Structures are given as C-alpha cells and as structure tokens.
C-alpha cells in the first residue's frame, strides 16, 4: 500500500537500534537477563514492531487467552458450587457467625439457592438451573472452587481480578501477556477488551489498563456494536483522495527521514502508519459478523428477542473471530457498571432471584455456543479459556433482604481448553460455601497458572516501575499444578 | 560507573586515628560495626537476638547474655568473639580494627547519636552509604577550553573521556522551535522564527529564553509535568470514580507557583501545609488528596481500615517519590528490600499524614476572624426563635377541625398539649408524604418551661422496625441528640411504623418536637398521618396529638408572623454564612495513633509509631506522639526543604534535566534508590543541585543554565560512528530528538489551525458526558471553541483518556508517572488520521490557509505554520498537486500527521 522507503527499511532491520531508551520500550537500568537462571525477564522489544510475536520462557500449552469476566461478583452458590447443607439448613443462622457483618452490613440466615442443582455430563457435576446450556459443558471445565480475593468491594476486587493489585494503577493480565508475547496477527490489535452490551464493566478501562507498561500494550476496547474508535474515518472519504493524501504524507516523512538519517524512531512511526492502514482493512473484516452462517448466528442467539442477550451473543461471536485471527488476549465482559444494585451486573444484594433471572440467560446460551464453537473448530486445543469474577457471595441473605452480600473468602472460577484438565474440580469451600477451606487458592495463583499455561514464569516476567521489578503476581502466587493436564 | 560517598576504605579511617587520642566513635567504631556486624546483628530479626544498633541493646546482649561491658574489653563478649576470630564468621577483622575496638570499649564504649544502620554490600542493595543519601558536595568545574557554561564543561569532559565529541550547533529555526516547544509547549509563530533568524545580536537567544521563561505558557507546560509526578486527577477513582468538580484549583496553583518561580521551600511547604502558612495558597494542599479514594465504603472493620490505609499509603508514596525520589511505599509491608527504609520509617511517615482526610474544605471565609462566633450567635438566635414560635402555637387537639394548627413540615414540628403524666410516649405513623418508609431525625420531649431540657435523651427508644443494612437509620438515632438524615430512624415498613420512648421515670410533659431532617436536605419520608400517645404502663394509651387538626389553611397569630419573618431572614443569613466555597483540598483533624501494620495487614497492628521521617536520610526527624496535625505536616515540609537533606535538590534538578533532554542524568526520576538508575554525570548532578540549593531553590535559573548551554543548543543529527559508541546518547553527543507529548500535540494542532483558546485557569473544559450514581464517562461527540483550551485545562478523570490524544502515552493518573513512556502505535496513527476532531481542525486550518493567495502561497503558509519552515521544492510541488487534485483540507490534515510535526528535534 504505502511501502516503507528503503532507507527506513534498512534502519528498521538493524539489530542495534532498539537499544534506544528514549522509546521507553527497553527497560532502564538492567539488561535483559533472559539467559540467566533466575531474575527478571524483560522481553526485548523492537520499537517498530512492538507487538511482533516473541518466544515464551518455556514451552507453552496455550497460544492465546479468552478471559470471560462476570462483573459484579457472580454468586458461586447459585451457579457452580453446590452445597446440599445450604438446602438442609435453609432459614437457620450460620453456625459460629453471630451478627456477622460483611460489606453492606449484618447478615441474616442461611439461604439455599433459588435455583435447583442437577448433575450434568459424564462427570456428574452439579450445576444450577440458572445456566442450563453451560451446565452441559461441565466436562470441558476445570473448576477452582477455593478462590479467595483480597478486597470485598467491587473497585479493588475487580482491580485485583484483572491486574493482580487491589490498588489502582497496575497493568492488566492482558497487557502483561502481550508485553511478554506480542501477537500473531500484526494487522489486528494484540489485546482486545469486549465490553458488555449494557455498558463498560465497573472500573471501566482500568480493567484493560497498560498502567506503567507502554501504551501499545493497552487493551483495545470495542464490541460488536461499537467498533474500534477511529478505525473508520469520521468522514466519508473518497478512497483515491485518501490514498493520494497518504502518499503525500509518506513523501513528507521520507524527506524528513533523509534529513535525519539513522533516526529509527522516525522509521518506527512510518511503520505504525503502514500498520494502521492494514488494520483498517483487516479489523473491519474480522468484525464483520455477516460473514458467519445463519446456523452459527442461530446457535449463538444473535437474534434473541432480548437485546442484551443478542448483544452478548454478537460479542461472543466477535470473540471467536478475533481468537481465530490470532489475537493474543481477548477479554469478554459479561455485566456492566452499577446502575443500581444488581441491575446491570451480578451484584445481587437485595433480590438475587429477580436479578439473576435477568442475567443468567444473557450469559448462558451465547457463552455455551462460543465454547462449543471453539471446540468444534479445534481452537480449544491451543486457546486457554478462563472464567472469573471479582469475588463470591454469602451463603446467607443479607438481613431483611432476599439477596447475598459480597464474599471474598470463597468463590469459584474455571479454566477450559489448552493445558488444563477436563471435568476436574480443585479445592472446596466449607459446607455452606462461605470460606475456602481445601487447597485454598488466591487471585495470584490464578494469574500464575494462566501465565504458566502461556509458557511464562510469573516470578520472572517483570517490568521496572517505581523502584521495583513489578510482576502481575506482586510477590505472591503459585502455579496450581493440580489443574494442569 | 562512578560512585561517590562513603565507599571509602574503612580500614584506612581506623588507621588514621592517632595513638594516645581517644577513639572517636563516629569516625572509627561506627563504620566498623556498620560494615562488619550490623548486617546480621540489627533490628528485630537480629541473629542470636543480639542487636548492636544502640549502646543499650549492645550491653543488654542477646541469647548468649550481655555483649558489651563498657570499660572492660576483656569482659565483653563482643570483643572476645572478635578477638578470637569467631566473628564475623566470613570476614574477620584486621589486627588494627580489633585493637580499635578494644581501646573503644576500655575507654568506656562512648556511643553518641542515632542508632546505627547497616552499611550494605552495594551489589545487593543500598545501605546508609548509598550515593544519593550522601551530602551534596559542590564539585569543581572541569577546566575545558571554550566551555563558558559549567554544564558544557562537565558534558564535554565526559565526552572526551569516551572519545566522543558534541554536535555542531542546531540552526536557528530548529533552535527557536526546540526551545519554544520545550519551555512553553507551543510553537513559535512564523514571525517569531523569521525575526529570530534575522536577529544579528549575540544576545538574541538569551532574550528569547528570557521571554519564554516569563511567558505564562511556561507554567502551563511545566505545571503539567509536575501534575504527572504527583498523580493529580479530578475524580475519586475505583468503581464510582465520581468527579471532584472543585479540585481544579490545585492544577492552577501548580501553574501559578511555577510561573512565579516560588522558592522550593515554599513549594514544599504549601503543598504539604499551606493551611499553616499566612497568605498560603489554600489550593496547594490539593497535593495531599490528589490521588484515588474509594468512595464506596465498607461495613466491615477490615474494609473500613483498608480504605483509610490505602489513602495514607498514597500520600506517603506520592510525597516520598515526588520530593525524595525514594519508593518509601515499598516499606508498607516489610523493610524496603533494596533501600535503607525500614518498615517503621514508612509508618513514621504515615503518622505525618494521619490527620489528613479526603474531604472538601472551605476555601476561605470559614477561617475568617469572627466567622465562627457569628455563625454560633446566629444559630443561637435561630433556636430561640424556634422556641418562641413553639410557644405561640395552639395546643394540639385531636378532636379539633383541620387547619387549627400549622401544616406538617419536613424540618421541625411541635406538639403542645396540657401537661400530662407519661412514662411511655409513642408516635404511630400510618402514612408518609411519598409512600416510603417514614423517617424521624430526632424526637424531643419536654416538661413545662422545658426545665431540664430534652427528656427523651435519657429515655429508651424502641420501634416497630428498622431500615435494613443502614447503620445511620437505626432506632437509637431517634433520641441521640444529633440532627439530620445521617442520624435518623427509618422504619422498614412502607408508609408506616411506630417509635416509642420509655422515660426513666414518670414525668409531666407538655411539649414534643419532631422532624424529618433538621438540616433541610431531605423532604421525603415525612409522616403525613400520625398520632402521638402517652401511657403509664405501656398498655393503656391516651392520644395527645395527631395530624388531624393540622392543615395548610391555618392562619398564624400576628406574633408568629413577625417571628417567622425574622426566622426566615436568619435562615437566609445562615445559608450565606455557611455558603463558603469548598474545594477538594483535604481536611484536617487531630490524628489518632499510628501503628506499624505487620505485613501491611490492617488487622495486625503492631507497635505504635510516632511521626517522623526516613532515618537514613538527612537530619533526624522525630515528633512526639501527641504532635498536632499541623505540626506534623509542617515538620515534614521543613525536613524536606532542609538544605542538609541531599535528596530533594538532586531530585528536582534531575526532573528539570529529564524534561529538557527526554532522559534524566538519573533516568528514574522518582527512584534514586538501589533499583533506580545511577547518574550518568554524578558531578554535574551535584553541581546543579548545589546551584539550586544554594541560590534559594528557584527553578527558572536552572532552566536558564540548561537551555543556554551548548549541550542543549547542539544539533540532534545522528552520527553513525558516535551512535555505535554511545547508542543511547547518555553522554549527550547530540540533542536527543523525540516525539512530543499528547498535550503538546493537541495544543499545537489548535495553535497551528489558529483556534487555540488561551483562556487560563478555572474549572477544566469538559470532553465527557457523565452519568450519575457511579460515574461513566462517555466522550462528547463534538467539541467546540470552549474545548479548544490548552490540554492542561482538560477536566481529568482518573482512568479515562482523551479519545484522540490519550493514546500518546498520557498518564491515567492512577499512580504517579515521573517518566512517560514514548510509544509509537497504529492506534495513534488511526486517531490522527481519522478522528472527527482532527478532520474539524484540518478544515479550520484550511480556512486559515486559503486566504494566503496563490496555491504556492497557500502551501508556503501551511508549511510555515505547521512546521515552522518553508517547503523544499519537491515538497512544495507535491503539496500543490495534492491541494489542486484532492483539496486543501487533505493537505492540512497530512501536515498535522507528519513525523516532523510531532517531533522535537
């Protein structure tokens, strides 16, 4: 289209140029220590192609990640974590927790789920009737029932779930992964965040933040109904005029580069404009859902009468097309910011059943269709699917209400696909589902395991910021070996 | 790499101590202990329990008994172990060192001053001997021919050592463009360029620099740099991310302070404690609360503490990175792994801020002399009027017709009746004005003449129900003497409910006063149908008042009318007195004790810690546990501005250098610790720091020194040969060219197109539509001249980025950004090519250009405004062709996209 001049090309091919620290892409004080046995590993990144694919630290099971995130704290007790004791002791106080105060205040009595649990799949896993389609896929899933989180309010909780830190200001898991591995398709964003049709999740862009990593590793946010900002010109342009204009720009830049020989940053910017041109074509093509068959649309439910279900179904379909095209990390959000308790997301404080009756179907069929589709296309072999939420909910109803308060002490997440066991359940909460008691896992462990499956050592993947080699897992985390296939 | 400071031979120091003279503890013994003993024998985890950091602890000894017997070396375990060569196990002392130790103990083991800190192997971590903690010493300027500016002497001397040479000077057009963009964030006009190119005076450049430094645009540019360093934003962050509509004044303060070049001491003092400075700028303390604050709250003890702990952590880490270049925040959970910052130091700093809360504070007026007493007097008269009006009200009579008494109001209602004996008083509500659960903020009971005051305060309140999960609406608030919604009772029954007071003994009462919200913020949930009854046994009840005789057509007696008029005027006066503009500049209260938190866990408080600073830095700062909040903040400000504190001056001049050259002499501007960079030119850094410190702490002279240097004025041209020797240009053999920041791109797009709105200060311009409840920021579709102000005046919510320019590595203000990365991405290209803002600006540019004359004139005009130069013949003819074939606005848009447009060279 607008090929780089030979001058620029030669410059970009030179190996030493990337030592230029003014780009901020190579770290500061320390050299890459990749060869060493321990210590930080900082990928060496070429400014003209910062997203070029890079080798993992060791052989990877998964090439890419689909992270489904349910914003608002999706109750484990009404979905994946079956507690017969809760049915038996329904309406009784929870033993040993007199006047227990949680996030919003005092708790009432134990309360069984309004949804019946039934066994599913060959594994006979109990799943609630809230999500019947997903329930059919339990044999693909690898549950972690013993999750714990650091914070009991949504902001810090969601921050930890997606950046490892309850405090604001740290890079998201997707930013870390693309920083480490680049991406397979240079004509698409490396890392895509797909907000729910109801709106952005609770801490908004902080969920796909690059923080102190260079901006190129930030998630690009778009969904099936809101395309990448500025991918198309804000004005209708005659393609020939635009092409002439870009030719002129190239001439200007080439002349400028001639006057500033050896300046690799200028060459990198020329390359970025070329990539933008290719992205305009390719990203539009990938986002074009009309290329899918009617049967596929029907399976996902993109024509559902509920506009949110249909919207989430289109997002699921978009996610598959992105993964298939080599996007490294796709974050698929289900649930939006708080529009009132439990209205826009899984935050069922006061009337859990009424809320979840709305939210369950939006998630269930489209996501089940996506998982089936990934499987039938063979993508599950090298795609890691993770499902998570910021924390769980209480086995009791809040005093004087019909809903559950926040519970960071026990909740469920699951993995599926590349490198993890199928039909497996790891860890457990206590008899009521209040606290994790068996093989207790942390969000750090969850992230460490995700990185491990991508061939990355969570203790070594780092970036210098404010006095320390920062990691996704802070100074914590253990790979949950038991879940590895 | 050159390191300076105390990395001297300690053995040599010992040998210097002359025979016969008593051993000097600080010079001879302390270094020995620090280097040879304290690595293991210090602090809580000292080996064998033996802590040698203080004399008392050394005498006390450890698991093996006392270690030091002053005056008796032979009886001291410390000496014996050392003399036997058992200690230190790997690195025994030399004979002369052992002798020094013996003499010191025999002479009484004199021990002066501070507890000792370990000197640490520089390969593993930084100790008290770390380079940046050593006093600033003014080095002599290297003697280099033709280097009139000391900066050049230092730079050239280093270049020479490495076999490099500096570039020739940049041409005049490049120079004026560079220095104007760098100092003001704007471009020179074509006229400025022409005039400078034509000015034959040798003083032309100097005059230009002085003009730029005096321009208000300087503060707008460099103020933005400081706002990065201190993570300033105008929203709360986290889930709700609510705007702080009155936080903008801190940004203006910073711009003002830089433009006036306030001395460093004042700059520090104002930001930490301007409330304690007469004539201090009240906005300055916006610094303290410029960070995130989780507004959601949390009913659990742990959650509540965590929010507070995170607030204080933010204040400590921001202050310490901004002024000290030390990452004290890392010591929140444990001693700093790399720098000599103990966990206790972190909590000592936390104690400094323990009185600071994330709140708005009246900007002025409230602290005006006499204001408080005027408010009190007005309130008192207001209360008297209430009582006089009460006395004028008719008695309640449940049998009487409507409109015999005033209608119910949300603020305050009185029930008067013939004195009646009562042990129980009950109000039963059967309807509210909006159908919601009823609310009563306070229920008062009096005997005649109100002798003894409100009896209800001593009674026991019970109710039919309480509003769930709301601590502020419990029945105990019915008679807690506190007014307003935030301490009120609400039932759990829509439109209904009863509340009763059981008095401690039977009393003959004649007045009851109740209201929904005496602070007059809420008018919902007001009981509209009710009855009030009394009882002596809780079984037989007698009605004494109800809503039935109240009504809107009630005609008050004349006396009431005049009292009402007076009360109304007082109400207005009070509102005026209380309507002092408030701002998000933090509020201050008396600090509660600070505890060290084990592993940073808010549920594991350890020892109490008194306010202080980092003990390894500067002079010691230790305050008493009962120091007031202003004392604490003032003391820290003074400690930071103390010329004996070597860090702030080094850190400030290095920041200035960083923004001028794109990389600092230390390339980690907020980290002068072990994990940070080492200075490329340590002597130059100290020379600049001493200039800054010794001349009053003014920044503009430092800028002037730098931009007047030949180092700054040299060309940016890359020479392949020299690039091989010094790829990263740390030695500064060229001026480092680089992409300009987001703000400079946006501001100069507007400037080039002739639409820049120079309105300075005040609330920021809005590029967002915001929702309420939790705040969601949706970009506005179209921007106009109100939004064409400089980007430093853009309302800045946390985590949200300008849709067009945010992608140019704008900080999202969740944490401090002392050094922005410089990314080059395809999304940046898409934004500058396709965004509606850029298209609109290109049109405006085209309109400006169109009047220039012939197409060739237009091309020349456009180049001069966008690139500050005339086009080459090749460029001009290509531009003319584009203009003719496709259109002028396309030409204009491509100029705004050009590499040259966004590059400082």
Annotation keywords:
heterodimer; A: 485 residues; alpha/beta; nine-stranded mixed sheet; 11 helices; globular; B: 905 residues; 29 helices; flat; disordered N terminus
Describe this structure in words.
The complex is a heterodimer of chains A (485) and B (905). Chain A is 29% helix and 16% strand. Chain A has 485 residues and is α/β, with parallel strands linked by helices. In chain A, helix 1 crosses helix 7. Chain A is globular. The N terminus of chain A is likely disordered. Chain B is of the alpha+beta class. In chain B, 37% of the residues lie in helices and 10% in strands. Chain B has 29 helices and 18 strands. In chain B, the strands form seven sheets. In chain B, strands 3, 5, 6, 8, 9 and 10 form a six-stranded antiparallel sheet that branches. In chain B, strands 1-12 form a two-stranded antiparallel ribbon. In chain B, strands 2-11 form a two-stranded antiparallel ribbon. In chain B, a hairpin with a 7-residue loop joins strand 13 and strand 14. In chain B, helix 10 packs across helix 11 and helix 15 runs antiparallel to helix 16. Chain B is flat, with a radius of gyration of 36 Å. Chains A and B meet through strand 2, helix 4, helix 6 and helix 7 of A and helix 13, helix 22, strand 15, helix 24 and helix 27 of B.
């Amino acid at each position: 289209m607008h090929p780089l001049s030979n001058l620029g090309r030669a410059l970009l091919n030179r190996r030493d140029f990337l030592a230029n620290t003014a780009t901020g892409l190579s770290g500061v004080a320390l050299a890459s220590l990749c060869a060493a046995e321990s210590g930080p590993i900082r990928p060496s990144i070429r400014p003209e192609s910062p997203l070029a694919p890079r080798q993992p630290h060791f052989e990877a099971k998964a090439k890419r990640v689909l992270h489904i995130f349910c914003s608002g704290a999706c109750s484990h007790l009404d979905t994946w974590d079956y507690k017969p004791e809760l049915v038996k002791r329904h309406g009784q106080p929870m033993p040993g927790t007199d006047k227990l105060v949680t996030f919003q205040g005092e708790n009432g009595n134990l309360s069984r789920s309004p949804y019946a649990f039934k066994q599913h799949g060959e594994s006979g896993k109990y799943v609630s009737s809230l999500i019947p389609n997903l329930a059919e896929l339990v044999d693909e899933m690898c549950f972690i029932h013993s999750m714990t989180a650091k914070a009991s309010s949504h902001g810090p909780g969601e921050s930890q779930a997606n950046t490892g830190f309850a405090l604001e200001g740290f890079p998201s898991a997707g930013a870390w992964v693309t920083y480490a591995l680049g991406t397979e398709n240079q004509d698409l964003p490396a890392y895509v965040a797909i907000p729910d049709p109801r709106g952005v999740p609770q801490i908004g862009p902080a969920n796909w933040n690059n923080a102190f990593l260079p901006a190129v590793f930030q998630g690009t946010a778009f969904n099936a109904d809101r395309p990448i900002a500025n991918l198309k010109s804000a004005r209708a342009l005659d393609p020939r005029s635009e092409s002439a204009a870009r030719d002129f720009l190239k001439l200007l830049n080439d002349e400028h580069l001639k006057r500033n020989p050896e300046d690799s940053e200028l060459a990198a910017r020329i390359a970025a404009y070329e990539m933008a041109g290719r992205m305009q074509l390719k990203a539009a093509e990938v986002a074009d859902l009309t290329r899918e068959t009617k049967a596929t649309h029907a399976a996902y439910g993109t024509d559902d009468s509920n506009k949110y279900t249909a919207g989430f179904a289109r997002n699921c379909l978009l996610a598959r097309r992105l993964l298939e095209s080599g996007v490294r990390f796709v974050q698929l959000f289900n649930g939006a910011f708080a529009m009132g308790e439990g209205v826009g997301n899984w935050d069922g404080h006061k009337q859990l059943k009424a809320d979840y009756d709305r939210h369950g179907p939006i998630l269930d069929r489209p996501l089940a269709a996506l998982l089936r589709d990934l499987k039938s296309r063979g993508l599950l072999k090298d795609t890691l699917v993770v499902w998570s939420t910021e924390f769980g909910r209480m086995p009791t109803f809040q005093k004087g209400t019909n809903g559950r308060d926040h519970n960071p002490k026990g909740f469920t997440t699951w993995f599926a696909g590349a490198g993890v066991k199928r039909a497996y359940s790891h860890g457990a909460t206590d008899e009521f589902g209040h606290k994790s008691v068996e093989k207790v896992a942390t969000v750090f462990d969850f992230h460490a395991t995700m990185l491990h499956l991508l061939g990355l050592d969570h203790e070594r993947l780092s970036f210098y910021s404010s006095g320390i080699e920062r990691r996704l897992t802070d100074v914590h985390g253990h790979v949950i070996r038991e879940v590895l296939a | 790499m050159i390191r300076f400071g105390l990395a001297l031979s300690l053995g040599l120091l010992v040998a210097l101590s002359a025979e016969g003279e008593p051993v000097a503890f600080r010079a001879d013994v302390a270094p020995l202990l620090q280097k040879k003993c304290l690595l293991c024998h210090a602090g809580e985890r000292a080996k064998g329990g033996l802590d040698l950091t203080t004399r008392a602890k050394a005498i006390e000894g450890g698991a093996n008994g006392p270690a030091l017997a002053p005056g008796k070396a032979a009886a001291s375990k410390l000496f014996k172990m050392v003399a036997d060569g058992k200690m230190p196990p790997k690195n025994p002392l030399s004979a002369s060192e052992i002798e020094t130790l013996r003499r010191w103990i025999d002479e009484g083991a004199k021990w002066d001053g501070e507890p000792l800190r370990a000197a640490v192997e520089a390969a593993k971590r930084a100790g008290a001997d770390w380079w940046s903690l050593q006093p600033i010493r003014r080095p002599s300027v290297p003697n280099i021919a033709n280097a009139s500016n000391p900066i050049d002497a230092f730079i050239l001397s280093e270049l020479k050592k490495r076999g490099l040479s500096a570039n020739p000077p940049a041409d005049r057009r490049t120079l004026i463009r560079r220095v104007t963009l760098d100092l003001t964030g704007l471009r020179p006009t074509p006229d400025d360029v022409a005039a400078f190119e034509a000015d034959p005076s040798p003083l032309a450049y100097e005059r230009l620099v002085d003009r730029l430094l005096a321009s208000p645009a300087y503060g707008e540019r460099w103020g933005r740099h400081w706002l990065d360093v201190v993570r300033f934003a105008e929203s709360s962050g986290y889930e709700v991310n609510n705007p702080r509509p009155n936080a903008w004044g801190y940004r203006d303060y910073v711009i003002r302070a830089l433009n006036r070049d306030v001395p460093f001491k004042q700059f520090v003092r104002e930001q930490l404690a301007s409330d304690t400075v007469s004539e201090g700028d009240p906005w300055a303390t916006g610094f303290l609360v410029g960070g995130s604050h989780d507004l959601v709250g949390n009913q659990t003890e742990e959650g509540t503490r965590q929010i507070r702990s995170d607030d204080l952590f933010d204040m400590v880490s921001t202050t310490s990175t901004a002024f000290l270049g030390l990452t004290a925040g890392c010591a929140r959970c444990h001693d700093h792994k790399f720098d000599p910052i103990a966990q206790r130091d972190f909590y000592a700093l936390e104690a400094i801020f323990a009185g600071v809360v994330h709140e708005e504070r009246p900007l002025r007026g409230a602290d005006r002399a006499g204001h408080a007493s005027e408010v009190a007097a007005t309130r008192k008269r207001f209360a008297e009027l209430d009582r006089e009006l009460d006395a004028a009200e008719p008695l309640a009579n449940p049998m009487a017709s409507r409109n015999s008494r005033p209608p119910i109001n949300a603020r305050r209602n009185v029930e008067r009746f013939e004195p009646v004996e009562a042990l129980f008083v009950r109000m039963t509500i059967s309807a509210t004005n909006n159908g919601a659960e009823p609310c009563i903020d306070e229920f008062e009971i009096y005997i005649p003449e109100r002798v003894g005051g409100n009896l209800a305060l001593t009674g026991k309140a019970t109710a039919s129900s309480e509003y769930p999960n709301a601590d502020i609406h419990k029945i105990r608030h019915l008679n807690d003497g506190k007014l307003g919604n935030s301490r009120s009772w609400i039932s759990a029954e829509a439109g209904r409910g009863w509340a009763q007071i059981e008095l401690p003994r039977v009393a003959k009462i004649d007045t009851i006063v109740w209201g929904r919200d005496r602070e007059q913020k809420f008018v919902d949930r007001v009981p509209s149908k009710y009855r009030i009854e009394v009882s002596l046994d809780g079984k037989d009840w007698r009605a004494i008042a109800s809503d039935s005789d109240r009504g809107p057509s009630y005609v008050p007696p004349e006396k009431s009318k005049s009292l009402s008029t007076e009360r109304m005027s007082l109400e207005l006066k009070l509102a005026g007195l209380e309507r002092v503009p408030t701002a998000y500049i933090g509020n201050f209260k008396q600090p509660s004790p600070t505890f060290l938190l084990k592993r940073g866990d808010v549920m594991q408080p350890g020892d109490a810690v008194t306010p202080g600073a980092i003990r390894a830095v500067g002079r010691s700062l230790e305050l008493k546990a009962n120091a007031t909040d202003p004392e604490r903040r003032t003391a820290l400000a003074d400690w930071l501005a103390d010329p004996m504190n070597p860090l702030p001056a080094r850190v400030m001049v290095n920041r200035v250098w960083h923004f001028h050259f794109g990389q600092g002499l230390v390339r980690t501007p907020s980290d002068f610790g072990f994990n940070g960079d080492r200075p490329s030119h340590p002597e130059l850094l100290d020379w600049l720091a001493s200039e800054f410190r010794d001349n009053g702490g003014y920044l503009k002279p430092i800028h002037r020194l730098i931009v007047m240097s030949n180092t700054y004025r040299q060309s940016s041209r890359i020479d392949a040969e020299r690039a091989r020797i010094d790829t990263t240009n740390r030695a500064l053999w060229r001026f480092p060219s680089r992409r300009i920041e987001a703000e400079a791109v946006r501001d100069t797009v507007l400037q080039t197109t002739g639409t820049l709105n120079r309105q300075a200060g005040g609330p920021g311009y809005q590029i967002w539509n915001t929702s309420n409840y939790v705040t969601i920021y949706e970009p506005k579709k179209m921007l106009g001249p109100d939004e064409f102000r400089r980007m430093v005046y853009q309302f800045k919510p946390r985590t949200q980025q300008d849709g067009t320019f945010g992608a140019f590595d704008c900080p999202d203000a969740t944490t401090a950004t002392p050094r922005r990365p410089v990314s080059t991405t395809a999304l940046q290209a898409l934004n500058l090519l396709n965004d509606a803002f850029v298209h609109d600006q290109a049109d405006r540019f085209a309109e400006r250009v169109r009047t220039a004359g012939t197409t060739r004139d237009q091309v020349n005009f456009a180049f001069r405004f966008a690139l500050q130069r005339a086009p080459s013949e090749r460029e001009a003819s290509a531009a003319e062709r584009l203009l003719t074939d496709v259109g002028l606005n396309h030409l204009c848009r491509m100029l705004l996209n050009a590499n040259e447009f966004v590059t400082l060279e």
